[in-house]
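Bench log. Compound arrived from synthesis this morning; before running ITC I wanted a structural hypothesis for how LCNOYBR7 sits in the protein. Inputs:
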Amino acid sequence: MLLGVIADDMTGATDVALMLNRSGMRTVQLIGVPRAGQALPEADAIVVALKSRTNPVTEAVADSLAACEALLAAGARQILFKYCSTFDSTPSGNIGPVADALARRLDAEIAIVCPAFPANGRSIYQGYLFVGAVPLHESSMKDHPLTPMRDSNLMRLMGAQTQAGVGLVDYATILAGTEAVKARFARLTGEGVRYVVTDALTNADLMVLGEAAAGHVLLTGGSGIAMGLPQNFRKAGLLPQREIAASLSAPAGRAGIISGSCSTATRGQIKAAIEAGYPALKVDPMELVSGGQDAAKLAGWALAQAVDKPFLLYSSDDPKEVSAIQDKLGREKAGETVEHAFAQTAALLAKGGVSRLLVAGGETSGAVVQGLGIGMLEIGPEIDPGVPWTRVADGQDMVIALKSGNFGAPDFFVKAWGLLR
Ligand SMILES: Nc1ncnc2c1ncn2[C@@H]1O[C@H](COP(=O)(O)OP(=O)(O)OP(=O)(O)O)[C@@H](O)[C@H]1O
Ligand SMILES: O=C(O)[C@@H](O)C(=O)CO
């Protein structure tokens, strides 16, 4: 094992695992902190998916350190701390405190801070993070319920979360190439800077950064920064050339979609699936509370549909409806109610013969994976940037794709099946 990754949420873990797999590293995703003494699977890279983005700082730090120990014990030579490409966090964390703890553990004198993910419109210029054509604080992330992003300057954002010095490698330096970036790293380290925000607009920039950071024991960022790391291991003779499969052989069985994501992207994808004739049932949190709907009824409905098209179970709604439900139930209870129902439903669906599943939403994916008792995923082909098919590697014969709310083209739910054999 060469590279160990600690990801702060479930879909972010699949995102970075895909990036590594595409770049020729055989990658396995583990769900949660490995148990003490647990033998980790054979792989070039292992991604540990945590739920440490918004939980209390002390828990996030403890889980990240435990994951780091397990990865080091399995032979990791470099550790990547993967967070969201929109730097989802608050002034109290969790990105800064987790990075600080990992830097201390690894004796890292420098660590890149690079959430750039050009394929999904996340770029960094002069240390400012852009989402598409607008700065982060003007994007929909400004209204995120848990981690509203009201600033776009990564030096300020990181600086508010750590006591360590924060510096910048600007775009002109990236354009000047690997040696220039390395020289800037050395200068900043000499000035007492630990965290280096790095500009990046294109994949080529990420390759330069990856090469320049070959000797760093710790990196932090979005999945984009992983793109340039496999080349270093290959150059060092540690990583053989690997075939990347363009499709995934999937077990025979029914196909379906579970969506608890309320993002604009997901709602568009649901509309496209319904227009394509997929049988669809809307899940209503109020009905779940009153008992009008429950997991048995949802699974019963899904399994009663004709098998020629995947079924779609969705609670996704527009922001006005979601906030009306949250006003009635409370934000936490609304989320938990839906997640609990989908977790139980997923277990019943698997028992009923569903073996091909698409799930939309980070929290929803976490709940469904837990409901299915999944501990390990092997990474398959890319459906859209940041979202691969995966195969369950420690239990039932199933393929599953976990989609971040904001990711995927409008026809995501319709085209994904074409990659399965
Ligand atoms: N109709 C609804 N009313 C209120 N809450 C809902 C409703 N539907 C889903 N939810 C909750 O909203 C949350 C959606 O979060 P989730 O992480 O699954 O999606 P997302 O935020 O779009 O995705 P990501 O985190 O990947 O960006 C979940 O807690 C889910 O249970
Ligand atoms: O980096 C991203 O945007 C995603 O992988 C993610 O973390 C979604 O929660």
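What the model suggests: The first helix runs from residue 10 to 22. The CA atoms of residues 29 and 47 lie 5 Å apart.
ITC booked for Thursday regardless.
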